[in-house]
Protein: Olfactory receptor 10G2
Amino acid sequence: MRRNKNTSLDTVVTEFILLGLAHPRNLRPLLFLVFFLIYILTQLGNLLILLTVWVDPKLHTRPMYILLGVLSFLDMWLSSVIVPRIFLNFTPSGKVIPFGGCVAQLYFFHFLGSTQCFLYTLMAYDRYLAICQPLRYPVLMNGRLCTILVAGAWVAGSIHGSIQAILTFRLPYCGPNRVDYFFCDIPAVLRLACADRTVNELVTFVDIGIVATSCFVLILLSYANIVHAILKISTADGRHRAFSTCGSHLTVVTVYYVPCIFIYLRAGSKSPLDGAVAVFYTVVTPLLNPLIYTLRNQDVKSALKRLTAGQGNVNENK
Structure:
C-alpha cells in the first residue's frame, strides 16, 4: 500500500487490494476459465437479444421489446463492471485496484444496478397495461413515452449511483486497504474508513431500501392485477401465452431482487454467504436473462429463428 508521506492525519490510501472469493489455491486456473467463459457467454447472449430486437421489425417498435433490449444492454455493462475484475483476481497481479478505479466501479455498479431496478418496474407496468388495459395500451404506452421513461430510469440511476459513491468516498481512508470482497461495494469499502460510518450505513440502508422495496412493491402490485386479469381470459391458450410472457419477467425479478435484499438490508453483516449471493446477482443473473427470455418468450424465439435464417429484415406475409 502506497501512502502520502505527510503527517499521519494526512495519510491516504492510493489503492485497494481486493481479496476476492475464498477458494482453494489449486482451483485458480479452473475458476479463472469458468468466470472468463461466463463473461463471454453473457456478452454474446445479451448481444444476440439486443441485435434481435433491433433488427426484427416486429420487435423494435413494441415497448415490451424496447425495454428488453435496454435490459440486455444494461446486463452487458453490469457484467463488464464486475466479472473481469473477478477473473483477474485469480491472477498474481490482479488484486490491486487504484483508488479512482474503486470509486468508478462502485459508482457504475450502483448506477447500472438501480437503473435495472427501475427498468424491471417499467417492464411490469408495460405488461400491466398490455393485459389489463389492452384497448388503451397503444395510447398509454407508445414508443415515445417508452423512450422518455427509459431515459428517466437512466437519469435516476445515475443520480442514485452518484449519491452512493460520494457518500462512500467522502470519508477518509488511511489504511488498511484490503477489501474483503471481490469488487468495490459499499459494505466492504466502508469497513476500511478511518471515521465514523454510522450515518453512511444508515443512509445506504434507507436509500437502497427505498429504491429496492418501492420498485419491488410496484412490481408485485402490477402482477397481482395481471394475474387477476389473466384468470378472466376465457381460452386456455390465451391464459398460457399471457402467463408465459409474464413468467419470464417474474423469474428475472425474483433472481435479481432476493439476493439484493439479502445483501443490502442486513446492515453490518459479515456473513460468508454474502460473497456467494453477490456472485449470483452480479454474475449469474446477467447470464440467465437471455436464456430466460428466449426460452419462455415465443416472439423472441421466432425472431431469433428469422435472424439466424438471415430474414431479420423481411416481413412475413406467409
